[in-house]
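Morning F.,

Quick status update on the modeling queue. The single chain you submitted on Monday has been processed. Sequence for confirmation:
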Amino acid sequence: MENVMINRKELKEIINEVFVDVLSERKDLIGSAVIEAFEDIGLAKAIEVGQTGEYLDVTEFKKRLDKKIKSKK
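C-alpha cells below.
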C-alpha cells in the first residue's frame, strides 16, 4: 500500500465531503440522533425533578400515572 501525504486543509475538505455524503445518504441517522438527544434531555429533567426529595408511595404514584394516561386518550 502506498502512503499519501495530504495537508490539513485537504484532510478537512475530505472529512467534510464524507460527512455530507453520509448525512445525505443516511438521513435516518440524523433523526435517530435527534430523538436520542430529546430522550436524554427528558431523562436528565426527570432526574432533576426526582432529586427534590419529594417522594410518593406506590399507591399515589399509580393514581398519578393512571390520571396522566387517561388524560392522553
